[in-house]
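Standup notes
- DV: blocked on the single-chain target, sequence here:
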Amino acid sequence: MDIILLERVGKLGHIGDVVTVKDGFARNYLLPQKKALRATEANKQYFESQRAELEAQNEERKGAAQTVAEKIDGSSYVLIRQAGETGQLYGSVSSRDIAAAASDSDVNVTRGQIVLDKPLKALGLYDVRIMLHPEVTATVQVNIARSEDEAERQARGEDILAREEDLDDDEDAVEDGALSAEDALDPEALATVDPDAESAEAEPETTES
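- DV (later): unblocked, structure below
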């Protein structure tokens, strides 16, 4: 189907361009979203008569989007979620969740503006693009953690899952008697533990006859 773009659309083109797209894409997205018109002679004449006004409206929307982008670009949003020991979430973080977090900062962001290929399903830091206008995007950081404390440590670059594994190793060492409860809190003490020491002491000495 041939259409006239009423605004810039991805790699298709800019406002006023006549392009050919698949019928389904036009009927299901471009036309109902008022991003394009069918490229009939009547619509071409209508567009040319309204071009100046349409371009002015586009510039106004673009300016508003740039104002929002300046407010949120580089921002970080903490989302607290439950997760297992491996970091997998009991659920997921969707574009709706991210839009809600961004909107809490006195800006209006919709889920349709969040560029997310699929929901986020693990703890961690994620850079997410927000398309505020076809020509204006902002990038924010989404910090998914199980608590505010974990979120702060994660933002500092700490691997919260690795820390959890280290603590589990310390507990095992205390149970085996290789490390005192006090030393389990000291990472340097753990480095001095010889895993072969206990087995060596347990082996009886043998004498040759």
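- Follow-up: The first helix runs from residue 23 to 30.
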